[in-house]
Fold this protein.
Amino acid sequence: MSSLFSLNKRDAINGLIVAFLSAALAGTIAALEAGVLPSLDALKSDALFGLKAAGAYLLKNLFTNSSDQFLASEK
C-alpha cells in the first residue's frame, strides 16, 4: 500500500488489471445478451469504461493511506 496522496507501481498495475477485467466483462456480457459479436464502437465504449474503472481505482488509492483507511492521515 502506498501512503496517503501517493501512488506506487503496484497501484498502477492493479489499476490496469481492474481496467482490463472491467472492459472484458462488460463487453462479454453485452455480446452474450445481444447474441452477436461486439462492433468496433462497442469495443471503444468498453475500453473507455475500463479506463474509467482504472481511474476510479487510482483515485481511491490516492486518497487511501497505507493502513487502507480512506482520507485518514498516516499514523
Observations:
- The two ends are 14 Å apart (CA to CA).
- The chain has two helices and no strands.
- The first helix runs from residue 9 to 34.
